[in-house]
Amino acid sequence: MMYNSREISPLLRCEMNKVIVVMPAFNAGKTLAKTYQDIPKDLVSEVVLGDDCSRDNTVELALSLGIKVLKTPKNLGYGGNQKMLYNEALKAGADVIVMIHPDWQYDATKIPELIAPILQGKKDVMLGSRILGGRAGTLAGGMPIYKYISNRFLTWAENLILKLNLSEYHTGFRAFRRRVLETIPIELNSDDFVFDSEILAETAAFGFRAGEIPIPCRYFSEASEIDLWRSIVYGLQTLWGCLKLVLHRSNIKKFAQFTAR
Asked: pLDDT: is 223 or 46 the higher one?
């Protein structure tokens, strides 16, 4: 089902009152303005950017756009940046927290559709999936073939273990109900890219309901991307996270990550 801002507004007023968008940023100066312009301001109470020691004009541009900026004292890493942003959003009283990369790779105009199932009480976590549109659309959008293959394999493995029944686990466009981030011990997660995989493993461990909507795939030169070696490391870390959940559920070895905070 498709939603627009006008349809979501009554839900936002009646059921929840604060949606905060957070953007973990590193050298996002070339794409930040386009991403910000696509955010539906009538549905969003606040936009917060976490700058992880960028070396370009990210901070200056964000401030000129009226975005609240949190600057890290040192490079925390992608996961560390998200921890800072989620804790800030919770402290600010957010009922729904939307995370989107500021590199314009993900379509912020889809925020109303993304948060609708959360506002309706049907889901706790929502993802924007580049895979739901089919392989042709994903590859036509510029996703490298090796990334597409690894995405499909990791998603297959994660569905086998986590059983969230998602078409893609590896997206930088997500929304969370407040209770999810209050429950999951995110401070125990990695500060690196695998943070994204860990938070979904915890979503499964704590029994939260996850869903997804289709979004276009957009790869281009200015979009952020990790290299092949870091992609391999990320894949191995993701599989290890799945194995940890298997060990935890089997009572072979317990992990604090899967114990509610």
From this structure: 46
